[in-house]
Design goal:
The complex is a heterodimer of chains A (about 475) and B (about 120).
Chain A: H1 8-26, H2 33-52, E1 58-60, E2 64-66, H3 68-95, H4 99-118, H5 122-140, H6 147-178, H7 183-193, H8 197-214, H9 222-229, H10 232-257, H11 262-284, H12 290-311, H13 314-345, H14 356-359, H15 361-375, H16 381-395, H17 399-425, H18 439-457, H19 460-470
Antiparallel strand pairs in A: 1-2
Chain B: H1 2-28, H2 58-82, H3 84-111
């Protein structure tokens, strides 16, 4: 008999997801809007329980690790899922079909991410990854009548399958080289045998597989098209939570199993980080569609996150954890505003955002402040998050890397402020009405803005928690 | 590095076998011009009727998926049934949960009309 109480959160999420599916079957089609509210309430409840259980730690059956690190990421996923649900009410109702499945799939994707963040062995890691990827394939193509959404779904399934295959090949090579799938044991075997060519090859495949999932350059080509075509709430969730989940798994694998090879993989991650930051930020400049802009912006955010991996230190991991949560709030805030705008205006083009500050001051302020946070301007939380990441690489002596990152952050301010310029200085289009925003979405936007401010001014508690959780990776 | 040498020999040997088989076939085959039935995509059996680029019903796919689901379920059920006594109550509860999840899936497929032949 295993310690099932360790899995309490995952079991709750799984049961909840199945429950939503059943609810969708029982409720008549006309009343299905309620499912969204049930989902929000359920996720909020699970989030409170997870928060209460954040100190829980232990290992389930030798291969599933519950520790502060995974609990932190689970909370981040639940927050992102909750905000996504808030942003989905009107959007999904407009789409007008299959509401039960949508919310159930969202919950199952969350479950997959949780498995990914907690897995202490390669097979459950792969399982979590596939659960996440496959549900996202369905969600990305959820807009049945929209060919772009279909394109997004097909692109995500093809490239997701390819990246999964690459990752799986890497996993099999690592297993072949070490004879075990448990991450901690791989670390021990690798420390005893040193770096063998098979292990190095496996590591490179793993790196490529993970780089696909976090959309790092040069493995990013799927993300702008998928982000543009997918329903906006799905794009929001895909861009924040799946990236955070892939980072959690990446940290577990590279710091736990492949620590012996870190002198090799650090070089590769430096190359990825530099390419990702530069290309992501520069290509974002000419974008005219806000979802594509955010796609390239999220590519560059992945580059900043990679800096934390490059530093290979407690500070680095803590900074990645902190950044992930801030990124969740910042990106979700922008996407909630974008969804609200789309529900009213039916457009995602930046030129249609002109004069938004007069039509809806809340949305304009939300986009402005969340983008400032993403760009890393004080006093927003994004500034603290970037500060920690840059500090972590500077403390390891990569000053030039921090310099590139700071320069490119300045570039990002440019394209974020171009949106702000059009919102605040542009003319209000002829015959436009004030925007209607549902109260739930308003509350969610205000709450995430508030959190961005509060965490920017008082980051101590959260960073202490993140740093303490990160220490576990450097204990013998 | 010796071990990797063996891997290399296997790789080369595998490639050589495949290429060699094709090459020998090409060497010894009778060389006749391509006329008549030889140009058909499907050389034996009945000749095709009408255009072959027709759309298949998506229902085939749904049936196959549901069938696969229950096929795989059986793989888990049989070993459990054989060792039922030894595995005890915990495995029994686990299996019930597993079957309940599958039944929800079947119920879903049924209700959404995946089992209806249009």
């Amino acid at each position: 008999m295993a310690d099932l109480h360790l899995l309490a959160v995952e079991i709750m999420v799984a049961v909840f997801g199945l429950g939503l599916l059943v609810l969708g079957l029982l409720v008549p089609r006309s009343d299905r809007r309620g499912i969204g509210y049930v989902t929000a309430a359920g996720l909020a409840g699970i989030m409170v329980i997870t928060f209460a259980m954040r100190e829980l730690s232990g290992v389930f059956m030798g291969g599933y690790i519950i520790d502060p690190f995974s609990n932190y990421f689970k909370l981040a996923f639940l927050v992102a899922a909750l905000l996504t649900v808030f942003c989905s009410f009107d959007y999904i109702e407009k789409m007008g079909f299959n509401q039960g499945e949508y919310y159930a799939l969202l919950v199952f994707a969350t479950l997959g991410m949780m498995l990914l963040a907690s897995s202490g062995e390669l097979i459950s890691l792969y399982l979590g990854l596939e659960l996440m990827t496959i549900t996202f394939c369905i969600l990305a193509g959820f807009h049945l009548r929209d060919p772009k959404s279909g394109e997004a779904g097909v692109k995500y399934i093809l490239l997701g399958a390819m990246s999964s295959a690459i990752l799986l090949y890497g996993l099999s090579l690592v297993y072949g080289a070490t004879g075990t799938v448990v991450i901690a044991e791989i670390g021990q075997v690798a420390a005893a045998s040193g770096s063998t060519p098979a292990l190095t090859l496996g590591m490179i495949f793993l790196l490529a597989g993970f780089a696909f999932k976090i959309a790092a350059v040069p493995f990013h080509m799927w993300s702008p098209d998928v982000y543009e075509g997918a329903p906006t709430p799905v794009t929001a969730y895909l861009s924040v939570a799946s990236k955070a989940a892939a980072f959690a798994a990446l940290i577990r694998v590279f710091f736990g199993a492949l620590a012996e090879l870190h002198s090799i993989w650090v070089q590769l991650f430096i190359a990825l980080a530099v390419l990702t930051i530069i290309l992501g930020n520069l290509v974002a400049i000419p974008q005219s569609n806000i979802k594509r802009l955010m796609a390239y912006s999220s590519i560059s955010q992945a580059g900043y996150l990679l800096l934390g991996i490059v530093s290979y230190s407690v500070l680095g991991i803590g900074a990645v954890m902190y950044y992930c949560l801030i990124y969740v709030f910042g990106n979700m805030c922008v996407f909630m505003a974008v969804t609200a705008f789309y529900n009213n205006a039916g457009s995602d083009e930046i030129r249609d955002y002109t004069g938004l500050s007069r039509r809806s001051p809340l949305l304009a302020a939300a986009i402005l402040f969340a983008m400032l946070s993403l760009a890393g301007i004080p006093p927003m939380a994004g500034f603290v998050a970037k500060l920690y990441l840059f500090m972590s690489v500077i403390s390891q002596g990569y000053i030039w890397l921090a310099l590139i990152a700071v320069l490119m952050s300045m570039v990002s301010v440019y394209y974020y402020l171009m949106v702000a310029k059009s919102m605040y200085l542009g003319a209000v289009p002829e015959g436009s009405k004030p925007l209607q925003i549902s109260p739930g979405l308003k509350v969610a936007i205000l709450a995430s803005l508030l959190i961005l401010f509060v965490l920017g001014i008082y980051p101590d508690d959260l960073t202490n928690f993140a740093m303490n959780s990160a220490v576990t990776f450097f204990m013998p | 590095m010796q071990d990797y040498g063996i891997v290399l020999i296997f790789l080369l040997g595998g490639a050589a076998t495949a290429i060699g088989a094709l090459f020998v076939n090409w060497l010894v085959r009778p060389k006749r011009p391509a006329v008549g039935d030889k140009l058909e995509a499907y050389e034996c059996g009945l000749p095709t009727e009408g255009p072959t680029w027709v759309q298949f019903k998506v229902s085939y796919f749904l049936y196959a998926l549901v069938f696969l689901l229950f096929d795989v379920e059986a793989i888990f059920l049989f070993p459990w049934a054989v060792r039922f006594q030894a595995l005890g109550l915990f495995a029994f509860v686990e299996m019930i949960i597993f079957i309940v999840i599958l039944v929800i899936g079947l119920w879903y497929a049924w209700k959404e009309g995946a089992l209806k032949w249009l």
